[in-house]
Amino acid sequence: MHTLYKIQRGFIEDTTKFVGKRSSLSSIKKLAGQTLWYGLPTIGSRFLGYILNFSLSFIYHAVDTADLTQIYAIVPFLNILFTYGVETGYFRFVQDKEKKILYNTLSTSLVVSTIIFSAVLLLFTHQLADATFMSAHPEYFIWLTGIIFLDTLATLPFAKLRQEGRPRKYAFVRVMGIVVNVLVVVFFIGICPKIAAKNPDSIWLIFYNPTIGIGYYLIGNLVGSAVTFLLLWQQWKGFRFEFDKTLWKEVMKYAYPLIIVGLGGMINEMLSRLVYQHVATIDPIKAKEELGIFAANYRLAVLITIFIQMFRMAAEPFFFNQSKEQNATKTYARVMKFFVIACCIMFLAIGLFLDVFEKILTIKYKEYGEGIHIVPILAMGSVFLGIYYNLSVWYKLTNKNLYGAAITIAGAVITVLLNIWWIPYFGYTGSAWATFTCYAFMMVVSYILGQKHYRIPYAKKKLIAYLVLTTLVFFIHKGLVALYGNIYFSVTTAALLLLGFLWFVGTIEKKEFQQFPVIGKYFK
């Protein structure tokens, strides 16, 4: 008890070192509110997306989902190439430039380039299908092109809503797009086959083609993207074809390293699923099956990435707007602390209840449970990635984006080499450890460089302590379950350990949490 008291006292003393606490907390409250508004539609849409993705394991064998896995691994790469950093460039320059000219210039650039890039994709549809072992489904790439085309044109309107502080409109459009997506998929995959079995001539089947099968996931996405674009029409109404060449060059000079950063980030996140069938030294059908298992379990770990994404939606414009404030660095440090606490809680919510997730994942096909052991590895890797995103504020605010590009390229090289090396020996387990290693490297290097070029007073000892404690709690539960493998025992001990962690954090951060709205009253 005396040791615990000393740890708590040390943590509290460390917290009180911050000055400008009230203004900093006020800013964090605003960020938390923005995060919720931008995050709720993200969580809602991703949750519905998870229902769709999880339904794959209830409808199709792992081998049948491999093609869809590869298609959705390609999408992020194309998103980065099609948008080439204009969103972050818009946030960076909107404070200093004439907003309308900036918006029109970047929109004109985006419209023209999107048309050109889409035409190139359509031209090489069959070649892309052959290169990804999908020769039987070149139409997937046609639908993919339509999705990317519409999503790219929605980029700046969404950025405009975020910059103007209109999270409600942002939330409405995001949610409506995903709801339409889900409804289309449910109708064509869940309802139409039943109607066809009972009444093949039904008018409801006028657009239904049973041979499309799993491809309706892409069609649903395409329709959802179209609805999203139409709902953003108000943001397009004021657009005029206007191009300021000098301004465009200035934005691109700032943004082009971010393209490298983005592509490197996608290599780190998606490469394993793109190269798996090329690198695995097993039967091609078995490789497709393993890829499907890998993807299904990866989705569990990505639950943390959902939180990271919703945080970034609010944090990116927040960091730029906050940069001119006197206590900006202290605010960034406190944001990092609360972010790490949230990530640790999410990791434990996944890792401690892994048995429950496995039961759900294997309701119909037991094969998906083979890869459940990679989830904690990928989840902690996602935590490292989130910390890296927080740390990246230093090079964005100091216009040193080339450093970010260099870090990401180094991480991408690690990802490529380790996947090529480990997949033939360890399968998707090797790929999971490659992801973990890459994100850990990027996090550490970014912290070291950031403290050199733009020092932020992070509570380093406290953050490390939380991460270590989280890992210890996970392994304690794992050890207990190894001794007694009953599912009820597993769930009970998991709940107790998670509550214990929450109590510990709540005790240490009591003074901080007391000042927060809604939850503050529970800490008084």
Q: What keywords describe this structure?
A:
22 helices, mainly alpha, 524 residues
| Overall average pLDDT | 82
User: Percent of residues in helical segments?
Assistant: over 70%
Radius of gyration: 24 Å
Question: How many DSSP E strands?
Answer: 0
Distance between the termini: 22 Å
How large is the count of helical segments? 22
Low-confidence stretches: 1-23
Structural class: mainly alpha
Order of helices and strands: HHHHHHHHHHHHHHHHHHHHHH
What about the largest sheet?
none
Describe the structure in your own words.
- This protein is an all-alpha fold and 524 residues long.
- It has a domain at 60-243.
- The chain is built from 22 helices and no strands.
- It is globular.
Quick rundown:
The protein has 524 residues and is mainly α.
List the helices and strands and how they pair.
Layout: H1 2-15, H2 21-59, H3 66-83, H4 86-93, H5 99-123, H6 125-131, H7 139-153, H8 155-163, H9 167-198, H10 216-231, H11 233-237, H12 245-279, H13 284-322, H14 328-351, H15 354-361, H16 375-391, H17 393-397, H18 401-426, H19 428-453, H20 460-483, H21 487-508, H22 510-514
